[in-house]
């Protein structure tokens, strides 16, 4: 793994995800796709277990003495893995994620530099204003849930 950052991001799981409310998320960056896959497959069973435990705890929350519940929460807060309850954007294809991260957009011109089969740089040619001809049209509509 290359890097872990705590970021504020809009929570798309909210009923009205267009409200602008943000939540804390961990952003994991990887050196390569294999590292991403390894971590994803390691985290998925942990997340499923955490979701099940959370549902069970919510169902029985009223049965516990509040002071016991607070002590239980205090002890488990040190276990970071037990706090991860969801995984997001893991299903975005690598090439699409790379284009998003590097702000590569359709209908713009780029200069691409290769060193044999290895991509070295992609430079947006801002002086070329004529749009490239598009062959595929796609659109995304944002709605509330």
Main β-sheet: number of strands, strand sense, barrel status?
2 strands, antiparallel
If strands are numbered along the chain, what order do they take across the biggest sheet?
1-2
The Cα radius of gyration reads 21 Å
Distance between the termini: 34 Å
Number of strands: 4
Beta-strand proportion:
15-25%
Number of helices: 3
Category by helix and strand content:
alpha+beta
Mean pLDDT: 77
Oligomer: single chain
Structural shape = extended
Characterize the structure shown:
The protein is an alpha+beta fold and 145 residues long. The chain has a domain at 3-92. The protein contains three helices and four strands; from the N terminus they run ββαααββ. The strands form two sheets. It has a two-stranded antiparallel ribbon. A two-stranded antiparallel ribbon has the order 3-4. A hairpin with a 2-residue loop joins β3 and β4 (118-124). The radius of gyration is 21 Å and the shape is extended.
Keywords:
single chain, 145 residues, two-stranded antiparallel ribbon, 3 helices, 4 strands, 32% helix
Sum this structure up briefly.
By secondary structure, the chain is α+β, with helices and mostly antiparallel strands. It has helices at 33-60, 66-76, 94-101, and strands at 3-10, 22-29, 110-115, 118-124.
Topology:
Blueprint: E1 3-10, E2 22-29, H1 33-60, H2 66-76, H3 94-101, E3 110-115, E4 118-124
Antiparallel strand pairs: 1-2, 3-4
